[in-house]
Every structure is written in C-alpha cells, then in structure tokens.
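Throughout our pipeline, every protein is held as a single compact record rather than as scattered files. The remainder of this section carries one protein's record, kept here as part of the documentation.

===
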Amino acid sequence: MAEFKWYGDKAVSRAMQAAIQTIQTCAADLQGKSAMQAPIDTGDLRANCSVSPLQREDKQVWVKVGYDLPYAIVQHEHLEYQHPKGGKAKYLEDPYKENAAKYERFIKDAVKRALAKE
C-alpha cells in the first residue's frame, strides 16, 4: 500500500525563510551600489542610505532601501544638477533598474534550492 504525506507547511516555511534571507541580501547589495552613486558634497548623503527592517503582511515580505535626508529626493530627481565631487542623479533608481532582474533571479533560485532540500 502506498502512503502519501503532505509537507506543505514545511515547504512554505522553507521557501519563506529562503526568500527573506535573499531579499535582505539583495537589499544590502542595492544599498551599497546606490550609496556609491549618490552625490558627494560632505558625504552625508552616501552615509544615509539604509535598509528598513523586514516587514510582513500576510504572506508578503519586503524591505525598503532609501534615504531620509530632506534633500535626498531633490538630488535624486534633478538631472541638471552638477556634482563636481562625484555621484549623480537617479542614484537609487538606476542601480535598482540595472539589478532588478538579477535580484529576482537570486530570490527564485534561493526558493528553489530551499524546496529541493529533503
């Protein structure tokens, strides 16, 4: 006689843990890439990039990467600003767009590996 067992809760837990770890890794990577592109004057803006604590709502998890200095959005959005000491506008958006597919692939691969474990 064959016996079938359902391990759905275990699979969901493994997948969620893998996704959480990888999301946090991707967020840290984006934080570093973004900070390196932020405009330099005093260095405050580059030092201000942060990753929020993990947030959950039902089965969704996320973190936020960003800046909270009052002038951060102005520097981000104004393409005409000159940055003689280095950096550029779109310092968060550009590295995100350049790496979004890679981050998505990393998360998917991590979940697949977690589900393949016995």
Notes: The radius of gyration is 19 Å. Strands lie at 50-51, 55-57, 60-62, 65-66.
